[in-house]
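Lab notebook, bench 4. Still working through the backlog of constructs that have no structural model yet. Next entry is a single chain of 173 residues. Request: give me the structure tokens for it.
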Amino acid sequence: MNRLAALGRRLAPQLLKNKQARAGGGEYPGGSFWSEGTQTGYNGFLFGEVPLAPGVSRKIQWWEPIWYGGYGIFFAGVFLIYHTKPLEALDIKYWARPRAQKELEEELRMLDKLSSRPDLKERLVAVGKDLNMIEEEAYDLVFMRQEYKVLLGMHSGRVPPDLKAVYEELAAE
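Model written out:
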């Protein structure tokens, strides 16, 4: 067993040693990857392509028609989609103004109802105080009824449940 261990100690470094010669292994034309290149000189042209002689046309590679066709179809599609769309699709004034007008009318109707019913106003002020709002900010709760934080608070229970009841009474005709 002793002799086998000694043989293993002697052979292990030789087996682990890299057999390939350093600084040029033969898989690269000029030696190693980091050695000097094989180009004999810089010819001054892009990618080293020499211009063709006059009257000789360049041979088109197999992938070029696919790319040119793809670009052509893409830009034709963009042009058609952009120019055949309805005007309302991109212009905000066509869809935002009616929506904003509708929301404003609803808010004004709710505020009128709030000013005509003092019991609703008192309940809204109480909810506002629970939310650390001053009395003058109670009207803001009417404007904020569709905002994400208020909706999330009502869904998660962080907002007093009376707020939802006040909103329902204000929204009722």
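Notes after review: The chain has seven helices and no strands. Residues 92-116 form the longest helix (25 residues). Flag for follow-up if needed.
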